Amino acid sequence: MTIAATLVKSGLVAARLPLTVAEVTLRRGTEAEDWPPSIAFDAFGATVKEVVGSLAHDHTLVEEGRLTRAKVDEVRRSTELETRAEILQDHADAQLTQRLEADAARRDAAARRADARKRTARQAKSEAKRNADERLERERQRGTKADRATKAATDRRDRAVRTQRATAERTALAEEREALAAKDAVRRISDELETATSDAPSSSSGAPGPSSR
Fold it and tell me: What predicted TM-score, i.e. pTM, was given to this entire model?
């Protein structure tokens, strides 16, 4: 190892000591390589190695600087990909949440519409039953009125028949009485004629004879 490489590495280690302490205390339990301050310092160290190595013609130091820079670039790309993945995941989660909320809203709306249709159907059924009951009641009332009218007409017809029958009976009785009266009159007249005939004087016994001279 050249003097330039030794000085650069020693200086970078000394310069990185506070950052190392911070990594231990602040980044406990996580990877330190993807911490932005660590990435920035590694990029700075890679630049220092490349510059000093080029000036000192230390190709090993230059190559180490390039490897460090490639590692830093890889970490940055990985971090960027992870960040993009997190952003995409957050966006997907947000879209999923929106879809779930939209689906829930549609289900709630569908449930409300179904409830409204059920209420409407129940109201229509109740209205139809009420109308049917009212029609039955009207028909019953009309039937009752028709029955009363029929009974009244039957009563009037029965009274008329009874009246006609009574009139006919009175007429027949009167005619029978007149016939009996006429028969009695004929019999009396016949009896009177017979009596008158039997009481008249005989012409042979009652007439005076001629006188002789």
Answer: 0.37
